[in-house]
Amino acid sequence: MMTAAAATTAVAPLGLFNSRVAAAGQCDTTSFRVAGFGPLKPTLPVNTSELADVPGARNGGDLRGIPLLSLPPDFQYRAISIRGHLMSDGNLVPGDHDGMGCFRAGRDHSVLVRNHELDIGEREAGSNLGCLTANGKRYDSFTGAGAGLGGAGTTTVVLDHIGRVVEDFVSLGGTVRNCAGGPTPWRSWISCEETFSTPAVDARTTEKHGYNFEVPSQLREAVDPIPLVAMGRMNHEAISVDGRTGYVYETEDRKDSAYYRFVPKQTPTRFGHLQRGGDLYAMVIEQKQRSNCNGRPLPTARFRGTRLVDTRGTGRGAGRSMLPFLGQRLAVRWVKLDDVDPDRDTLRYEAHAKGAAVFWRGEGAWYHGGKHYWVCRGAGDAAEGQVWCYDPRSETVSLIVESTDENLLDGPDNLTVARDRTIYICEDGSKGRKRKQNFSQRVVGVDTKGGLFDFAQNIIPGDLNEFTGACFSPNGRFMFVNNQGIGITFAIWRSNRRRILLNRG
Fold it and tell me: Is this model's pTM higher than 0.85 or not?
């Protein structure tokens, strides 16, 4: 582990809610690691004897007796819901496990709703059926691609109190590239399409794509898929729902993306309320603000004929760095968008024309403690990624993480927040092209003082694929996270049965 004094080549968060200012008036950009839960070590899954058939894995799919994760001391895990295995509804577990949320189900059970980032007819573990629903409810029949394809969507996985699968089935089908999403306070999952397909440009489709869909976690069959058109048609990534207002905040996976707020017509309290529509807005960062560290103005650029704040960092073409603003609260306002269901991928163009700030590839998002967190993968001066935090009570936004060294944080993507406010980030970076020792992706923690630590690492033989879908069980005892490439969900817990808390427990 690096010490605070030694880690001078990368920038970590300078505290999540305030920045540090050096006496000389310069920003303190010293990075640091913390011990976290301790050094990682290769760990066998508790159900290793059940892993004789893992399609796509080395050794003919036999992973028995092979560590799949490196974890801190006193942590265990179970490998569940594996791509290509048979589910309760008679379908095979689809591949490309992605964003995920966990919900309470009765006294002793919990429910995972999990995205699958599949293209139409994509072949995974010998099957191209994808998220084929048992009850026939699909958003798109994909008649141009051949009969009987499910495309992307979600699966629902019911678990017992020790993380074993009780029931699993496809719960949303007929969509395309469902990447991330987010949970709602009323126990549903919003699944987001990361695509802009139409029948005019993709003959395999019969419907317009690029929407969000709501999936009730308690429903025991596939949902009737209704696109939430008023939330915008774009290359969606993730959402977070404000527990106080019911507003939905949305990220967009584009190199010149905006950050959006959906204000429902009716304050949502149950499944279906979001279908009643609402208004969509984009975030504007006020330009006349200067760094508390060195007095520099915010970086700006001209987009769509309008000058706006450019947060992407010098590594992504911005004229100035955002690092002098690390941890600083920046005032924002919101502009209303009119053409929320455009025929072309132009929603962000309207946002920029009205002054909305530009972000580099908005990715995972999460709501916790009255604040909204989201990731910009590959943003920053070194193109290693940023994490942002929006506070609706003060109408401010803060850059709380910018990595300049992949050994600290390599391409942040999905994220979640624990009860103690520790952020856990799934990496989807360069897969170790520059990393000296750790050549596979990790789950990286960020504590409340800004220290970074490794929580988990993928060590499946021959696999360097990203982690996705990190989330916690309602009681805080389990972290669930996916390996997307092999298609495995992991249930991780502390062997002393305490919650996964860094600062307490």
Answer: yes
